[in-house]
C-alpha cells in the first residue's frame, strides 16, 4: 500500500502485503503481512508499536491516532487470536475510517500478520 517506509536492507518475502504508513527498521525481515500504521523491526520482524511520528507527519488527527492506538492495544496487547481481535476491532471501526482500513487489511490477510 501507499506511504510505507522500508528501512535499508529490509527483506520482504514474496506475496507479503505491506500496509500503508507502516515503517520497518533497518535490516528487518518481513515474512508475514505487515499491517498498516505499524513499526516493525528484527529478523524476523516483530511489531514494536504504532508509527505515531509518521502518522503525525502525514496529517493524521489526534483522534485518529488515539483510535489507532486503541486498535493496536486490542491487536497486540490483549493476547487475542487474530479472529477475536478482528471482532473487537469491528466495534472501533464504526467511528474511525483508519481503524476500518486496518480491519479490512487484517480480514484479507492470507499469510498471517507480523505479531
Structure at a glance:
With 115 residues, this protein is α/β, with parallel strands linked by helices. The protein has helices at residues 52-57, 62-77, 82-93, 97-107; strands at residues 5-6, 11-12, 23-24, 29-30, 38-41, 46-50. It is built from four helices and six strands; from the N terminus they run ββββββαααα.
**Helix segment count?**
4
The strand order across the widest sheet is 1-3-5-6
In round numbers, the mean pLDDT is 97
Number of strands: 6
Helix content estimate: 25-40%
Radius of gyration: 13 Å
List the helices and strands and how they pair.
Blueprint: E1 5-6, E2 11-12, E3 23-24, E4 29-30, E5 38-41, E6 46-50, H1 52-57, H2 62-77, H3 82-93, H4 97-107
Parallel strand pairs: 1-3, 2-4, 3-5
Antiparallel strand pairs: 5-6
Helix pairs in contact: 2-3, 3-4
Amino acid at each position: 500500500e501507499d506511504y510505507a517506509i522500508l528501512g535499508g536492507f529490509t527483506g520482504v518475502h514474496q506475496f507479503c502485503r505491506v500496509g500503508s504508513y507502516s515503517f520497518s527498521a533497518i535490516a528487518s525481515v518481513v515474512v508475514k503481512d505487515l499491517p498498516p500504521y505499524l513499526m516493525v523491526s528484527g529478523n524476523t520482524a516483530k511489531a514494536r508499536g504504532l508509527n505515531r511520528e509518521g502518522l503525525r507527519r502525514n496529517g493524521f488527527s489526534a483522534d485518529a491516532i488515539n483510535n489507532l492506538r486503541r486498535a493496536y492495544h486490542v491487536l497486540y496487547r490483549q493476547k487475542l487470536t487474530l479472529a477475536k481481535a478482528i471482532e473487537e476491532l469491528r466495534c472501533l471501526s464504526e467511528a474511525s475510517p483508519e481503524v476500518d482500513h486496518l480491519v479490512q487489511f487484517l480480514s484479507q490477510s492470507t499469510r498471517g500478520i507480523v505479531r
